[in-house]
Amino acid sequence: MGGVAHHVVVDGSGPVCVLAAGLGMSWFDWDPVVPLLAPYRTVVRFDRPGHGLSQPSAAPSTAAGEADRIAAVLDAVPGAARDASPARTADGRDLAPVTVVGHSIAGFHAEAFARFHPARTAALVLVDSSVEERPRASRTGPALARALGAALCAAGVPAALGPAGRGLTVRLSSHRRPDPSPPAEVRRVYRTSRVLRGTLDENARYGAVAAELLALREGAPLPPGLPVTVLAAPDGSARWERRQRALARRLGARYEAAEPSGHLVMLDRPDAIARAVLDVGR
User: How do residues 93-113 score in pLDDT, each as one tens digit?
Assistant: First the structure.
């Protein structure tokens, strides 16, 4: 995809569901959710550039680019091809609409996919999605993010502290103790300079992607009647709950609270995510 090797994992069978993880996260963060979906869905997980096991990319992250990335991942998955659909790949394969699940910053990407590729979208599930009513440019611009990443990597920070930093993130963002992810995979991913750089680069583009999505909402409506679920994790924050409910109203979505749960809903309440996906067909 764009000359960048992407790590993609496919499980299960049935209608396709694609899972997009948040900033700095990896394919294995969805491990608790997959067994609940795989008996009923073809579950597609992928790592964005500089995340998980995917190669880095020099191209900046954009809402349009991330929407097209999801489409390209689906194009490469044989299970995403079905008959009798209005959407087709470049080689003429018919494509069935898919359920797109986006967590945190990937909520921006999932919504952008639904707006740029409406014929390919069966349902949209936003899992404690990022919300920006008035996006501002990130304090750490792309150039500064690259310089910071280079300095930290030259100092050996990823190899020394990467897995520990990942563990701290899980402790602060979920109710799981300790990190339930495979230790060998955590070391394999988070000891690399590639993941630190990829996370910093994507974070530096956060405000720009949020602003792009707000503009997109004005000119590219969601498909009429599209089932949309906002699955939030208020975790005691009335302000965050208000913002998530406002997002649901703006998108005409069903609002559901995953409680108890921290921001990493896939670790705390995988059952809530699975239910949100499977309820689409009922």
Answer: 456 899 999 999 999 999 999
pLDDT tens profile 113-149: 999 999 999 999 999 999 999 888 776 688 899 999 9
Tokens 């909402």 -> residue: 217
Helix (H) or strand (E) holding 268: helix 265-268
CA distances from 13 to 10, 18, 102, 104, 122 (A): 9, 12, 20, 26, 16
Q: What is the dihedral of CA 81, 83, 89, 90, to 10 degrees?
A: 130
- Judge contact between 102 and 127, C-beta under 8 A: yes
**pTM here?**
0.93
Cα separation, 264 vs 270, whole angstroms: 10
Confidence of residue 282 (pLDDT cuts 50, 70, 90): low
- Local structure of 131: helix, strand or coil: coil
What are 94's strand-pairing partners? 88
Which residues fall within 8 angstroms of residue 219, CB to CB, at 6 or more apart?
Answer: none
Could you report the per-residue pLDDT of 194-232, keeping only the tens digit for each?
999 999 999 999 999 999 999 999 999 999 999 999 999
Cα end-to-end span (Å), the chain: 34
State the maximum Cα–Cα separation within the chain, in Å, rounded to a whole number. Answer: 55
Q: Return the number of other C-beta atoms located less than 10 Å from residue 113's C-beta.
A: 28
The beta-strand segments (E) located in 4-73 are 8-12, 16-20, 42-46
Beta strands in the chain (DSSP E): 8-12, 16-20, 42-46, 87-88, 94-95, 98-103, 121-127, 228-232, 254-257
C-alpha 234/C-alpha 258 separation (Å) is 8
Neighbours of 99 (CB within 10 A): 25
